[in-house]
């Protein structure tokens, strides 16, 4: 039984919705065992704030440390499984028009069987050359937490350093992904916002854009967030409990 039983009106809204957007953040993957940005950090990482590592300044300061962090995170994702929330969204898309717009850089939606319309903040699995942009295959990351910096690989095309495929703080979002996200949000009649603190822009502006246009927006999060005051429904439950109950 979910911690907070679902409001039957939400189940009805989900059933009646013709075009759904699921907007996910790090909390979507928490029950798979992937720490969110706000979880307490341990080991090598406890003395670094993500904004220090997920930024061009962090890369310029110590690309080996940043590469090690992403290699560890890539390996962690590879070793875990999609949770019941990811699977419920994939099931929903089998009988309704559901588009996923995610801030997450993991591939758990895809591994649950979903297509993702937009990875707004890039992906762990698309490293690219920091100089010429050439895509390089991910080597699957590390099975253990690194104890220090790891020298990033060299670009096979120009010899530059290969960087993680994530969008860092201070970097623009991929234009094509942003446009797909805006189009999906403008066309939907229900937006389900799962596991995001709603603090990172411009992504966090998308639920507000939907709410302002009169679209029904449902937030699934065990905590209130910066978005809560602006959304019609905020359900204090988790992704893996709430989504299966919503998607009957
Ligand atoms: C840009 C990839 C401009 C990297 C990420 C002031 C106002 C507005 C904007 C700014 C500002 N100051 C600075 C900015 C810009 C900045 C920004 O928004 N900063 C914030 C901190 C204020 N934004 C940017 O820099 C963006 N780019 O603005 O470019 C520009 C324009 C032109 C030219 C140049 C530049 C780029 C931002 C992208 C950063 N990259 N990710 C990586 O992964 O390493 S963002 C990263 O952090 C995540 O993607 C996520 O979106 C975000 C927040 O992390 P978390 O809080 O952990 O995750 P989340 O928000 O999802 O929160 C977890 C939630 O889950 C919690 O609410 C929790 O309660 C809940 N939860 C926990 N367990 C569960 C759960 N929910 C459900 N079920 C559970 N089981
Ligand atoms: Zn290159």
TrEMBL record:
Record flagged with keyword Cell cycle: no
Name used for this protein in its record: NAD-dependent protein deacylase
The note describing how and how many cofactors are bound reads: Binds 1 zinc ion per subunit.
Q: Name any cofactors this protein relies on.
A: Zn(2+)
Q: Which GO molecular function, any one, fits this protein according to its record?
A: NAD-dependent protein lysine deacetylase activity
Native organism is Rhodococcus parequi
Has the keyword Acyltransferase been applied to this entry?
A: yes
Keywords from the UniProt entry: Acyltransferase, Cytoplasm, Metal-binding, NAD, Transferase, Zinc
Where is Zn(2+) annotated to bind?
129, 132, 155, 158
- What does the sequence similarity comment in the record state about its family? Belongs to the sirtuin family. Class III subfamily.
Q: What role does it play?
A: NAD-dependent lysine deacetylase and desuccinylase that specifically removes acetyl and succinyl groups on target proteins. Modulates the activities of several proteins which are inactive in their acylated form.
């Amino acid at each position: 039984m979910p911690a907070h039983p679902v409001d039957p009106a939400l189940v009805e809204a989900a059933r009646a919705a013709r075009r759904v957007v699921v907007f996910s953040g790090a909390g979507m993957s928490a029950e798979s065992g992937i720490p969110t940005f706000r979880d307490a950090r341990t080991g090598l990482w406890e003395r670094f704030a993500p904004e220090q590592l997920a930024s061009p300044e962090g890369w310029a300061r110590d690309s080996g440390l940043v590469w090690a962090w992403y290699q560890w995170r890539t390996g962690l994702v590879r070793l875990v499984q999609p949770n019941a929330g990811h699977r419920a969204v994939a099931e929903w898309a089998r009988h309704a028009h559901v588009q996923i717009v995610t801030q997450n850089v993991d591939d758990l939606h895809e591994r649950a069987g979903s297509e993702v319309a937009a990875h707004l903040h890039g992906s762990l699995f698309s490293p690219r050359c920091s100089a010429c942009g050439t895509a390089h295959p991910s080597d699957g990351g590390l099975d253990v937490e690194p104890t220090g910096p790891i020298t990033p690989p060299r670009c096979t095309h120009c010899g530059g350093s290969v960087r993680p495929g994530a969008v860092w703080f201070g970097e623009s979002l991929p234009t094509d992904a942003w446009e797909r996200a805006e189009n999906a949000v403008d066309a939907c009649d229900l937006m389900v916002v799962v596991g995001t603190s709603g603090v990172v822009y411009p992504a966090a502006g998308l639920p507000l854009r939907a709410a302002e246009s009169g679209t029904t927006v449902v937030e699934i999060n065990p905590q209130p967030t910066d978005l809560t005051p602006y959304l019609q429904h905020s359900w204090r439950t988790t992704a893996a409990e709430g989504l299966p109950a919503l998607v009957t």
